[in-house]
Amino acid sequence: MSDDLATSFWTPSISRTAGPVYLAIADALQADIRAGHLATGTRLPPQRALAEALGIDFTTVTRAYAEARRRGLVEGRVGQGTYVSQGRTAPPLRQRPNPSGLVDMSMNLPPRFDDEALSARMWQGISGLETTDGLDLLLRYQQPGGAARDRAAGAEWLANRLPGIGPERILVCPGAQGALLAVTGMLTAPGDTVCAEALSYPGFLSVAAHLRLTVAALEIDDNGLIPEAFEQICISRRPKALYCNPTISNPTTITLPLSRRKAILDIAARHDVVIIEDDAYGALPMQPVAPLAALAPERVYHIAGLAKCLSPALRIAYLAAPDLRAATRLAGTIRATSAMASPLSAAIASRWIEDGTAEAVLAAIRRETKLRQAIAAELLPAANLLVDPEGFHAWLQLSSAWSRGEFTARLRSAGIGVVASDAFAVGPAPEAVRLGLGAAEDRDHLRQSLGIVADLLAETPAASAMVI
User: Fold this and answer.
1) CATH number where 32 lies
2) Cα gap 382→466, rounded to integer Å
3) Residue 144: closest CA among 305, 320, 336
4) For 279, phi and psi rounded to 5 degrees?
5) Residues ≥6 apart with Cβ < 8 Å to 42
C-alpha cells in the first residue's frame, strides 16, 4: 500500500463504549501493525483528517497519536507527518487493569500528563546520552555518592529550596528509600528510639523495623506535628532522631507552618536531636514553606526524591548532608547498603535538569495535578476530605458508619484500590483512607473511580452489602 493510499484509507474500526476513544484508536493502530496491515514506514492520516473521518474532536486524535508514540508504534517527522516506526516490532496490546475504567488508587504516583512534545523531549534526552557519555556510563562503576556531574545537578535542582547548597554536601542515592536506609542506619543502632508523626510514610516505618528501632508516635493536629508533643518525647525517651515529612505530608497532605518548623528546630537543638526531613513533595508547591534544612542545615538531613516530581522510574534521590564530614560518612554507608545509585538513571536525571526538561516535566505535573484536584473537590464531600491543592494524594476521613477495613474491602470488590490508615499509623489508626489521584491513567478514569468512592461513602454498609 502506498503512503498516499494509506493516508486516504486507514480508518480504524473502534468501539466508543469500551473506554476512552483515544485508547481505542491507539489499540486499533497497534492491532493493524501487528497484523501486517500497516507496514513500517507507512504514513498515517493527518490528525485533522482522521478526526473528520471518524467524526470526533481533533484533540482526541492528537492524544491517540501521542499514545501510539509512547508505545513506540509511530514517529513524527518534522514537516512530513506521522509514520509507522522504522524497525520496530509492535509490543503486545496493552492490558487495561480494569475494563470498567476504574483504577487502583493505592499507589501514590505523579499524574500522567498529555504532552507529546514534552514526552519526545524526555526520550531525546535519554537517547542523547549515547553520544555524550558512551560506554563508560554502562561499563564503569561510580563513586557511592554519585559522580561529580550528578552531584552538581542535584545541587542545581535543590538550589531554590536550599539556597547556597554545594555539590560537596549532596549524595546521589538509589531512591528516597535508599537514602532513608543509609541515613537512618548511620545515625542509629538497634534498640534506639526515633520519633515520627503519628501518621507517617510506611517506607520509613519499614526501615525502622528493619533496623530494629522503636518508633515513638508524635501527636498531630490540623497543622501537623505538635511541637509540645515532640518536646515531651525528647524529655521522656531521648530519641536519636526525628523523621518528618513536613510538606504535603504523606498521608495527611498537611504542610507544617513556618512557626512550627522553627519551634521544632529549637526543641531539636536544645535536646540534641538530629532531623531526617523527607521532602518527597517539596518541589510541587509554587511558593513552598522553607525546608527545615534551609532553616537549620547543621541539624537536618534533607532527602529530595525525584519520584513524585519527575519520574518514579529513575529511582534517584538527592540527600543533602549537614556538612562535608557527614557526607563522607554517608558515602560509606551507601557503599555498604547499595554500592551506588544507578549511573544510567543519575545521568538521565542530570541531563534533564541541565537542559530544562526537568522543570518542564514538573510544570506539566503541576498542571495535571490541578485538574485532578478539581475533580476530587467536585465529587468528594469537603467535610471528609483533606487535600493540598498542589499535591496529588488525598486523605479521606470516613463517616461514623464505616470502618476503614469494610470501606477498603467494598471498594476493592468494585475494582478500586485505596490504602487504609493502618499502613501509616504509628499508634491507633483513625477511620480514614488515602487516595492516589495521580494513579489514574487519565482524568476520565479518575472521575469514574471517585464517583464510585463518593457513592459508597454516602451509603451505609448495610445498604450496599451483597451477602447471600
Assistant:
1) 1.10.10.10
2) 28
3) 336
4) -105, 45
5) 1, 3, 6, 10, 83, 84
**Residue listed under C-alpha cell 548532608:** 321
Q: Which residues contact 348 (CB under 8 A, 6 or more apart)?
A: 125, 126, 129, 314
Written as one letter, the residue type at 322 is P
439 within some domain: yes
Residue 326 belongs to domain with CATH number: 3.40.640.10
Among 106-115, 365-374, 428-437, the least confident range: 106-115
404 CB-side CA count, 13 A = 19
337 shares its domain with 371? no
The confidence band for 170, taking pLDDT boundaries of 50, 70 and 90, is very high
Task: Produce one character per residue of 26-52: b if its CB has 16 or more CB atoms within 10 Å, e if not.
Answer: bbbbbebbeeeebeeebbbbebeebbe
- How, if at all, do strands 193-197 and 241-244 pair? parallel
Say how many C-beta atoms besides its own lie within 10 A of residue 243's C-beta. 26
Cell for 429?
489508626
- For the chain, how many structural domains are there in total? 3
Query: Above pLDDT 90, what percent of the chain?
Result: 68
Strands 300-305, 274-278: pairing kind: parallel
Residue ending a domain, choose from 50, 77, 92:
92
Helices (runs of H) and strands (runs of E) counted in the chain: 18, 15
Rounded distance, CA 378 to CA 391, Å? Answer: 16
Range of 372's domain? 362-458
